[in-house]
Structure formats: structure tokens, C-alpha cells
């Protein structure tokens, strides 16, 4: 017998040996497959099967529409996909969350996808809801949802669907009819009608000027009465039907605000407090005629914000106060200790004030106010010593003045010369 041959010999041994060899081969094959698949099969598996898509969340902005008017929804995540709508390798689909699907049909349907955007012409209240846009290429897929709310065209709905805009009193400025790009593209003869509180603004009116070919309404010398609701309407033709596209604007008029350099007038450099008691240190800022709204004020402890430094809330920032005294503005933010503890004596507190013109801070430290203090007790004594010292200095100076010239001359020769009476005696 020379080893184990497949034919003959003890069958049980050869069988087990065959099994062993087979399993060895199988294992090797398995390794081979796994190894090869790591290089070839896996990348193919990475292609995203339909339905397996990353949800990026809901877009922060709700789209508002007016019943009977066209509405366009743009896929919110497309800007993350460079040139996605243009690329033939990217598949962009829309569906409404509440229905199984919303396959865009022929030209005649109310809802259709055009150039990646969802067009609803005309929008009905029933079209309100959540829409999900799916963007997919060979290797990646993601989804984002956007909400649409369609209102009836009533006065009441104005407050919901108006865009806030701000102009400054006694200046000239313009309102912009917002989010019209889908309807004004490739249009040179764009004509916008402007309404204030539902009354058409006449082109003959000198105060308002609808600037031809743009989406702007110029308002001259803005007054308080100019505030309120405006609408702009642009006509849009679609499949031979003319639709209006309406946008509402709520105009707020701001007073011209002056900016001044703030001056921190409180706190003092040191604040006396008793351990265990409650303490309030106001940070008071003088603004003169300057605006409070643009002045930011806060406290810090050891260069950390109060909220982070005292998460347990023992030390907090109080309510911000804005007030005027004799036509001059002040802002105040108190720092409240409840109570003061020993650690506070070693902490660097500072009040920081910031506006467009300056950035300032003022440091303050809390000192313990004990009932008996050597500093206070010795204060009269130090005063007496100070006065005596002063008298002595005065006398010495009078005595010395006569020798001033000789002293200066000597000094140039002796660099280490010191102004002590003993030295003066030696010079004599
Ligand atoms: C698919 O899109 C992703 C994300 O934009 C991109 O990184 C990837 O290169 C694209 N793949 C193909 C095959 O276009
Ligand atoms: C896009 O996806 C839809 C649905 O999955 C499919 O019917 C259509 O053929 C795809 N289009 C392209 C260009 O891949
Ligand atoms: C779709 O609707 C269901 C049920 O109304 C809700 O649970 C889900 O969060 C919605 N999905 C999106 C993306 O809004
Ligand atoms: C702007 O309007 C106010 C009244 O609203 C008026 O007193 C002022 O003279 C006007 N200024 C200009 C430059 O027209
Ligand atoms: C569109 O608005 C114009 C005036 O702005 C109005 O005369 C017209 O009736 C409106 N059309 C529709 C379809 O609402
Ligand atoms: C601030 O720093 C001082 C010294 O570095 C320390 O003793 C004190 O506890 C610190 N205070 C806070 C609130 O961290």
C-alpha cells in the first residue's frame, strides 16, 4: 500500500479522504468566489434597486398656490445633483404622498412633469398635500418631499400666502414680485399689474412705478401709509388658455435707524457680594440716538457663554431691557447669581456688546464683602501714612531743588545713579 489511492484499498479510508479532498476543493472554490466577487459582483450590487432610496427629509419651504392659477414645484434636492435635470442618466420622478403614484400622462392632464419640475395647471385645493421627488442615477438615489398648499383667492388667504418685504421710511425702494421665474422665462414683454389693498395702482400715479420688463414696483418717498398688502399679477398662457399668476406681498415700513458706538456704563470693575446671597450685576449700555435692535449684548464667564458655563442654571442671564431716558436709548442685560459661591470670586466675568460699528467688552470680578475687612480697618491708617509721606516728600524736594543742575550733570556720568537721599548725601 502506498498511500491512499482512489481505487482499492480500504474503502472507508479512501472515502473519507475523498470527502476531505472534495471539501478542501470546495472551500478553496468558495474562497475564490468570495474573493472574485469582492472585485466584480459587489459594484454591480451597489446599483440602487427601485424602492431603496435615501430620504433627505422635507424641504423647509412650503409652496403656496392660488386656486385656478398654475403652480410649479421644483425638485428641492436637484441643486445637490449638478446638472441633474439636464443629464440623460438621471431619472427624476414625482409622486404625491397620499396616492400610490402620480404617473404623468399626456399633454392634456392637469398635472405633468416638464424639465424636472412638476406643473399643476390650474391648481385646485385638492392638489394640496405632500409631494415627493425622487432623483436616481445608475449608482445613487435620493428623495425629498415638499408641501403644497392651494388656497381660494380671498382676502383672508392673503395673510397666509404673502411674502414679507421691508422698505425704509422716507427713502425710495422697490417691491419685487417673487417666484415668477417659471412664468417669465423667455419673455421680453412681461407686464405685471400691481394692486395695493386690491386697488389697481395707476401707471399715472407718481408715487408708484411698475418698471417695464422687470418684476419691480418702485415706490418713491416711502411713507407709513405705504405699508400693507400688495398683489402683483402676471398673465401666463398655457395650451391656448390665459391664466393669471398672483403673488402677495406684505410690506412693512421700517424707520431709518441710526447706529452709534455703544458705551458700556456698568458694571464696575469689582462688585462686592456676600457668599450665599443672591446677586444681580446689570450690564448697561448707552446708545444715545442709536438703535437698540441692532445692538447685541451678552455675558461670558471665563470666555464661555453663561448657558454653557452654568448648565445647572445657578448663574443666568436675565431678561434684556431696552428703554429710553431723556430721548437716549439704553440696553441692559443683568447677570444673576443665585447664590454667589466661592468659585465666582476666581471667575472672570465680562459683558460683551456688539453692533455694526463696534465690538466692546468690560471685565468685572466679584469680591467677597466680609463684615470685617482689614483693608477697610487700615484705610484711615494708610491715609495718615500717605499724608505724612507727602509732607516729607515736599520738604525733601524743596531742599533738593537748588542742586538740580549738578545732579543732572552727575547722572550722565553715572548711569546706575539712583535718586535716594543717601546717594545725594554721598555726592555732596
Ligand atoms: C450619480 O449621482 C451621484 C450623486 O450626484 C454621483 O456622485 C455619481 O457619480 C452619479 N453616478 C453616475 C453613474 O452618474
Ligand atoms: C425612469 O424611471 C421610470 C420608473 O422607474 C421608468 O419607467 C423610466 O423608463 C425611467 N427613465 C429613464 C430615462 O431611465
Ligand atoms: C406620507 O404620509 C404618511 C401617512 O400620512 C406619513 O406617515 C409619512 O411621513 C408621509 N411621508 C412624507 C415623506 O411626508
Ligand atoms: C416725502 O414725504 C413727506 C411726507 O410723507 C414729505 O414731507 C417730504 O417732503 C417728502 N420728501 C420728498 C423728497 O418728496
Ligand atoms: C387676470 O387678471 C386680469 C387683471 O389683472 C383680469 O382682468 C382677468 O380677468 C384675470 N383673468 C383670470 C382668468 O382670472
Ligand atoms: C474660571 O477660571 C478660574 C481660574 O482659572 C477657576 O477657578 C474658576 O472655577 C473658573 N470658573 C468657571 C465658571 O469655570
TrEMBL record:
The cross-references to SMART domains, in alphabetical order and at most eight, read: IG, IGc2
Residues annotated as domain Ig-like: 43-147, 174-250, 262-373
Membrane topology type: Single-pass type I membrane protein
Q: Which InterPro entries match?
A: Ig-like_dom, Ig-like_dom_sf, Ig-like_fold, Ig_sub, Ig_sub2, IL-1_rcpt_fam, IL-1_rcpt_I/II-typ, IL-1_rcpt_II-typ
Task: Report keywords, A-Z.
Answer: Cell membrane, Disulfide bond, Glycoprotein, Immunoglobulin domain, Membrane, Receptor, Repeat, Secreted, Signal, Transmembrane, Transmembrane helix
Q: Name one GO cellular component term.
A: extracellular region
Gene3D superfamilies on file? Immunoglobulins
- Indicate where this protein resides in the cell: Cell membrane; Membrane; Secreted
Asked whether the keyword Disulfide bond is assigned, the reply is yes
Q: Which domain of life is it from?
A: Eukaryota
Q: Name one GO molecular function term.
A: interleukin-1, type II, blocking receptor activity
Q: Which family does it belong to?
A: Belongs to the interleukin-1 receptor family.
> What's the protein name?
Interleukin-1 receptor type 2
What organism is this sequence from?
Pteropus vampyrus (Large flying fox)
Q: What gene does the UniProt entry assign to this protein?
A: IL1R2
Amino acid at each position: 500500500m502506498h498511500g491512499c489511492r482512489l481505487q482499492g484499498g480500504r474503502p472507508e479510508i479512501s472515502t473519507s479522504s475523498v470527502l476531505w479532498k472534495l471539501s478542501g476543493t470546495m472551500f478553496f472554490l468558495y474562497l475564490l468566489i468570495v474573493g472574485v466577487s469582492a472585485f466584480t459582483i459587489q459594484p454591480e450590487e451597489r446599483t440602487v434597486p427601485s424602492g431603496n432610496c435615501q430620504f433627505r427629509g422635507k424641504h423647509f419651504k412650503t409652496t403656496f398656490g392660488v386656486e385656478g392659477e398654475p403652480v410649479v414645484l421644483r425638485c428641492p434636492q436637484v441643486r445637490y445633483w449638478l446638472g441633474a435635470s439636464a443629464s440623460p442618466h438621471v431619472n427624476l420622478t414625482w409622486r404625491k404622498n397620499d396616492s400610490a403614484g402620480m404617473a404623468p400622462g399626456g399633454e392634456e392632464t392637469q398635472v405633468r412633469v416638464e424639465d424636472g419640475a412638476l406643473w399643476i395647471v390650474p391648481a385646485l385645493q385638492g392638489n394640496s398635500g405632500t409631494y415627493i421627488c425622487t432623483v436616481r442615477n445608475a449608482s445613487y438615489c435620493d428623495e425629498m418631499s415638499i408641501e403644497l398648499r392651494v388656497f381660494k383667492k380671498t382676502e383672508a388667504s392673503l395673510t397666509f400666502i404673502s411674502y414679507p418685504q421691508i422698505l425704509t421710511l422716507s427713502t425710495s425702494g422697490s417691491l419685487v414680485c417673487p417666484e415668477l421665474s417659471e412664468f417669465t422665462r423667455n419673455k421680453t414683454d412681461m407686464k405685471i399689474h400691481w394692486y395695493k389693498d386690491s386697488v389697481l395702482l395707476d401707471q399715472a400715479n407718481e408715487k408708484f412705478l411698475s418698471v417695464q420688463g422687470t418684476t419691480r414696483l418702485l415706490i418713491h418717498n416711502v411713507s407709513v401709509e405705504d405699508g400693507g398688502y400688495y398683489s402683483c399679477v402676471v398673465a401666463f398662457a398655457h395650451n391656448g388658455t390665459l391664466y393669471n399668476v398672483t403673488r402677495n406681498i406684505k410690506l412693512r415700513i421700517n424707520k431709518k435707524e441710526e447706529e452709534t458706538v455703544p458705551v458700556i456704563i456698568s458694571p464696575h470693575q469689582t462688585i462686592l457680594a456676600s457668599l450665599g446671597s443672591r446677586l444681580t450685576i446689570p450690564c448697561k449700555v448707552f446708545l444715545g440716538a442709536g438703535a437698540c435692535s441692532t445692538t447685541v449684548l451678552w455675558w461670558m464667564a471665563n470666555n464661555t457663554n453663561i448657558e454653557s458655563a452654568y448648565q445647572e442654571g445657578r448663574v443666568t442671564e436675565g431678561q434684556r431691557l431696552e428703554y429710553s431716558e431723556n430721548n437716549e436709548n439704553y440696553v441692559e442685560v443683568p447677570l444673576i447669581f443665585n447664590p454667589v459661591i466661592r468659585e465666582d470670586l476666581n471667575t472672570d466675568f465680562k459683558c460683551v456688546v456688539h453692533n455694526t460699528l463696534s465690538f466692546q467688552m468690560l471685565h468685572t470680578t466679584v469680591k467677597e464683602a466680609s463684615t470685617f475687612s482689614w483693608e477697610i480697618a487700615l484705610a484711615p491708617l494708610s491715609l495718615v501714612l500717605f499724608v505724612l509721606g507727602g509732607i516729607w516728600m515736599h520738604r525733601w524736594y524743596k531742599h533738593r531743588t537748588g542742586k538740580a543742575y549738578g545732579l543732572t550733570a552727575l547722572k550722565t556720568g553715572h548711569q546706575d545713579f539712583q535718586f535716594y537721599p543717601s546717594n545725594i548725601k554721598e555726592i555732596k
